Amino acid sequence: MGIFSRKSNTAATAADRGATAVLDVDPALAALTGDYAIDPAHSSIGFTVRHAMVTNVKGSFAEHEGSLHLDGADPSRSTARIDIKIESVDTGIKDRDAHLRGDDFFDAAAFPLMTFRSTSAEQLGGDRYRVTGDLTIKDVTRPLAIDLEFNGSATDVYGNERVGFEGSAEILRSDWGLTWNAALETGGVMVSDKVKLTFDISAVKTAAQA
Predict the structure, then answer these.
(1) Which of 6-10, 104-108, 125-129 has the weakest average pLDDT?
(2) Strand ranges (E), 52-160
(3) Confidence category of residue 17, pLDDT binned at 50, 70, 90
(4) How far apart are CA 158 and CA 70, in angstroms?
(5) Do 56 and 63 form a contact (C-beta atoms < 8 A)?
(6) Where are the beta strands (DSSP E) in 71-112?
(7) Nearest-5° angle of CA 116, CA 66, CA 113?
(8) Which end of the chain is more exposed for a tag (fewer CB within 10 A), N or C?
(9) Alpha-carbon distance 166 to 146, whole Å?
(10) DSSP string covering 173-192
(11) What is the pLDDT of residues 22-55, one digit of tens each?
(12) Is 155 exposed, middle or buried (0-12, 13-18, 19+ CB in 10 A)?
């Protein structure tokens, strides 16, 4: 079942007859319409990159904040905004993290944030969605499409209305000017150009404005 719409039995019957089917909005899902704040304590933004051609290094950004607007009647009007603090990068190795924060990679002192601002959203089918937007790293902004799966909604023990999404995207870091590398004696390079980004998002519905 998708977060935004469900085909009614009547619409399905009409489609079977060759007529144009209209998607009805499920009241329970339409109730999710609203503004949400991403909960950093229960969300993670990570990455995976090939190292020395033979293994993967995984990391994450511990500090981030953002918001979602979900439109239960028209998913194309949904939006997302995320700000990620570069200084919070964590791969489990202090020296490597310091290298990533430095001039060879992110230059966190000059460019403290990585940002994403959505420009469009679409339902791919079922619980699958695609959010496209502008990803800015350092002083470079380029389009990024993130494929997401809706994990559901719930009211937690504190009475907060929550929604959950998980998703991923792949980028070439060189497209954002992250080109540092080192050649290996056996051929190839130390760090792959391809990077997989992962998103596991829990967001809390905010109070409606008066």
Answers:
(1) 6-10
(2) 55-61, 64-70, 79-85, 89-90, 113-125, 128-137, 140-155
(3) very low
(4) 22
(5) no
(6) 79-85, 89-90
(7) 55
(8) C
(9) 10
(10) GGGGT-----B-TTSSBSEE
(11) 345 566 667 889 999 999 999 999 999 999 899 9
(12) exposed
pLDDT at 75: 85
From the list 63, 90, 205, 79, the residue with the least C-alpha distance to 146 is: 79
Which of 54, 55, 57 minimizes the C-alpha distance to 187?
54
Cα-only R_g, the chain: 20
Q: Is 99 helix (H, G, I), strand (E, B) or coil?
A: helix
**DSSP designation for 7:** -
Q: What share of residues in the chain are helix, strand, coil (percent, to 5)?
A: 15, 50, 35
- How does pLDDT run across 138-172, given as a tens digit for each residue? 999 999 999 999 999 999 999 999 999 999 999 99
Burial of 141 (0-12, 13-18, 19+ CB in 10 A): middle
Question: Do residues 148 and 166 touch, judged by C-beta distance below 8 A?
Answer: yes
CA proximity to 138, closest of 95, 98, 101: 101
Q: What is the pTM of this model?
A: 0.85
Residue that is written with structure tokens 């993967």 in the block: 56
